[in-house]
Amino acid sequence: MIKIKINGQEQSWDGDPDLPLLWFLRDEVGLTGTKFGCGQALCGACTVIVDKEAVRACITSVNDVAGREVTTIEGLHPNGDHPVQKAWRQVNVPQCGFCQAGQIMQAAALLMDNAKPSHDQIRQAMAGNICRCGCYQRIENAVHLASTGV
Amino acid sequence: MNFIDNPKKLRGFEKHVRIEKVSRRSILKGLGVTGGFVLAAPVMSRQAFAYETGAGKMPHGVVVDPRVFVAVAPDGIVTIVAHRSEMGTGVRTSLPLIVAEEMEANWSRVKVQQAHGDEVMYGNQDTDGSRSTRHYLIPMRQIGASARIMLEQAAAKRWGVPATEVKAVNHEVVHGASGRKLGFGELAADAAKESLPSVDSLKLKDPKDFRYLTKGQIGIVDLHDITTGKAGYGADVRLPGMKYAVIARPPVTGGKLVSFDPADAMKVSGVEKVMEVRGWPWPSKFQPLGGVAVIARNTGAAIKGRDALKIVWDDGPNGKYESVAYRKELEEAARKPGLVVRKEGDADAALKSADKVIVGEYYVPHLAHVSMEPPVAVADVKGDKAEIWAPVQSPGGTREDVAKTLGIPEQNVTVNVTLLGGGFGRKSKCDYALEAALLSKELGAPVKVQWTREDDLHNGFLHTVSVERIEAGLDKSGKVIAWRHRSVAPSIASTFAAGTVHQASFELGMGLVDMPFEIANVSCENPEAAARTRIGWFRSVSNIPRAFAVQSMVGEIAQAIGRDQKDMLLELIGSPRIVKLTSVKDLWNYGEPYDSYPIDTARLRKVVELVADKGEWGRQVPKGHGLGIAAHRSFVSYIATIVEVAVDDKGKLTIPRVDTAIDCGTFVNPERIQSQIEGAAIMGLSLAKYGEITFKDGKVQQKNYDDFPVIRMDESPLLTNVHIVPPGPDTPPSGVGEPGVPPFAPALINAIFAATGKRIRSLPIGKQLEA
């Protein structure tokens, strides 16, 4: 039996330990905010924070995160008012919105690591997260806004 | 109780996916941090029928009835139905906002409810062709105005005063003389009993009184849910007892299953069943391709099970499809005469007598949509009833196709439309919903069919592949006197009819026969090409290769005679006039009447001049940088783009700045126009730099975002500016979602020439600038 703390709540799993965390979150726990986009850690739609690091849930097994703390978009802030979330709304970032949970989690992890990233650092740190609608200019601006006070 | 309560609320939907909820105000403060846009003075008519659109000719036409689209609850909450699909354009906000504006509802007390697929009830729901605002601006205003009048009449009766003395203002009705007021909620029950005003009698709001329209200050309705992970997409639907399925499909279009061995798949933990899925013979329209489904307790187990399947396929007639050889076939066809689809003067003779002939042969390969959300659908089929939850651009068509595929009456099918994680035309085809319906019927349980990214690339409906060959003849003075354009590409029609070798009128009308230049001798031809895979609509469709070819040729002519690109473009567009295309049979004008939406070269000139002005055409750029320009009319809108490119000594390119000017006529939400055009630059850059699907042995060779890359943030333009042309009085609204893409690639290619002297005629750019 594998035990994981997800958004502060303990969850357990006694199925295939190699099951990707993405499908455990979405299909077994019902936390559907984390998205499936590629399954190969190429697009970042499934980004969650494990301890303090952004990871791709599609190539991380449930076993990999045994005993660790996983934060998903649903647990980023109790009211959805994390500075990154607030900045996102001020800039009206999303188009279709599907990649945005992953983008927001990546940005939140970036700001934990570097509270005042430069525009270049934002562009580099966010390059693993694809947005097919092409909201990059707004994402960049929203991360900058979040880092300078919303 | 309720005024105009919609009796057919989304059955079963609220239980599972919270898609409709009280709209968020989210007044934007942060817009200043992005590239600025020109805000026009609102010019919108109070007349209902200042122009005609093609809306009435769409399947099931238009429904203008507030009882269908609006409900006012006793607590004052106004529910407005969004009947088009939200895939990122902002339509779920913009159309309800029009209704709210016209009925004087306060947006913070408006709830948006997504319509299920029912075109008899709501009118046409096909969310494609950049049509939503174009077709629904006036109908939504009429719906809002009718609701307002019914509320006003109810208040007037309550007070015993003439209706002319009362006025709806900001969610209440006011009697000016006495100062009495009643909220919309208090009037709901009485207003429901009022008769429906006739559409002809409606007086629409004076645009100077607009609070929301044309202002661009409203956040999208799903903004809070998207940023908190609560927004409901297709894959987020969860039903009690639901099974998870992935399907192994024939790897070659037209192929079929011979045999399969499920033994190893059944050993995978969590796998419950392996079963065959019915397929349809090619051309299969939107029907499933068939294959083998793995059913499991979660998606991860289903994918692992599918990896363990042993399958033998018969590849069928397209097993030898190979991209290099096919390109040669297209090129050979383009070098010979083909079916003439437009003819003015004598292009052959003029080319022979020309002082100089410039020939450009341009290639654009197959492209895949790769929306972030791969196709996915949930179905629950019980007896002769089916309920579907899916991200579809065609809710009405999906309902029809599910009914046909299952052999049940259409009224027994409910199609719940979730948010779409991108569409770009892929989700106009409902094959994934049909797969889910077939599986649910056989399993007797609700089932979710999830496509992987590999499935999306291998079994999609690809953008066509094309060779566009243009020959331009110039006289001694450098004036272009002849234009011959041959377009060779397999048609979307091949997905519906076997033996198709010519492009359909809707494809020919996308930048071939509608070429707007003032040239005396013109020949547009369409040599034959047969499809070897499934071809479908991809955002902007045939405008992508056509704008690439035509606008590259403008750059090549300028280059040949030493002219400025922008001046050459304006000279070719010629005098301000309405282009008459008398030699074109079945001219396709995006489904719009030509009188309302003619090819108006004054408007095309205007976007070129505006972008040249705002985008500082001709500015000094550093060494290794170049500016390029392109303009194109598509989806009855006019767009021009300037790209600044920087190419380093290793051939690596970066984009310091993009400027786009758009004339989309009368508009509703400039902030979403800006976001669509910003995104179009990214999609244009993606296809120009990387976009290529290739075939070998009949199979798509790309698998995922590593070998079918799209632009990421670190290579996106540093700055994208959007400039919106203020509409003239009563200028009909036109498309926004698609027109931004086509001019980007040629503007970039012209910029690369300016920077490096290298002329690229084959997309993607790939490694052509290296070495």
Would you give an account of this structure?
Chain A is α+β, with helices and mostly antiparallel strands and 150 residues long. Chain A has helices spanning 21-29, 83-91, 100-113, 119-125, 136-148; strands at residues 2-6, 9-13, 47-50, 53-56, 69-71. Chain A has a five-stranded mixed sheet, sandwiched between helices. In chain A, helix 2 packs across helix 5 (136-148). The relative contact order of chain A is 0.17. The mean pLDDT of chain A is 97. In chain B, helix 16 packs parallel to helix 20 and helix 19 (670-689) crosses helix 20 (744-756). The model of chain B is unreliable at 1-43 (pLDDT under 50). Chain B is an alpha+beta fold and 771 residues long. In chain B, 60% of the residues are buried. In chain B, helix 3 links the parallel strand 2 (78-82) and strand 3. Chain B has 20 helices and 26 strands. Chain B starts with 12 loop residues before the first helix and ends in a 15-residue tail after the last helix. The chains are: A alpha+beta (150), B alpha+beta (771). The interface between A and B is large, with 67 and 77 residues.
